[in-house]
Amino acid sequence: MINVLSNIKNACEFLTIVSFPFGRSANSGREMAGSMAFFPLIGLVIGGALVLFSFLLNYILPWQCVCAIILAFYAYITGGIHLDGVADTLDGMYGGKDRKSVLLIMRDSRIGAIGSLGIIFIILLKFAGLANLTNNQWILIFLMPLWGRWTQLFLAWRCDYARKEDGLGKPFLEFVTHGDLLLGSLIMVAPAIICLGLKGFIPVAAAGLSAFLCSWYFTKKLRGVTGDVIGGCGEFVEVFVFYVTLMVS
Predict the structure, then answer these.
(1) Are 103 and 169 contacting, i.e. CB atoms less than 8 angstroms apart?
(2) Residue 212 half-sphere exposure, CB side, CA atoms within 13 Å?
(3) Over the stretch 30-48, which tens digit does the pLDDT of each residue have?
(4) Domain ranges of the chain
């Protein structure tokens, strides 16, 4: 029980700006990787917060304004860490001529034109999808952060670390286990089926397929992934599966 609480605490503190006094902070690579099993759970908590926030604001503001505010809140509560991954990944893949130069560009703290456009398009796609939700589709907001956090777990489980030197993502990739993936996948599948019925298998399959394609592509291009790639792919898959869910719900 203590280990579960510690893993949830570590997952929450890594994925959001929220910190908790209980539990033990991760002191090893295995403890950091173990928290990834609960990444989808933190995604659900974030989704629940977004739904609550949107309900409250919808009483006093037009829905388009609510969409803009909850996206700003979403970026704030996550510290924008995954949007940063989008920018770094796109800058590297666009500007790099080979594997070494791609990884070097990703290390650069400065953001380029392609990275900036990537963030803008991600936010615009989310806004357009949210702005077109009907009153009975609030569940899509709840599920939206789930898909990206599961994708991060999947990539950490499937891929090697692309860099020779240490980085933020290395401990996660080195120590994540089959059990972590299984637990995280159950946390991902269960709410989708509960909320959407048998249709829930469609976004689940879309998440699995798109995450696999991301792992295949970056393994081919970089011989693995980095923390930036994991965060960026989480955003890409999140948007894609959100639109798939929007179509079938």
Answers:
(1) no
(2) 6
(3) 667 778 899 999 999 999 9
(4) 47-248
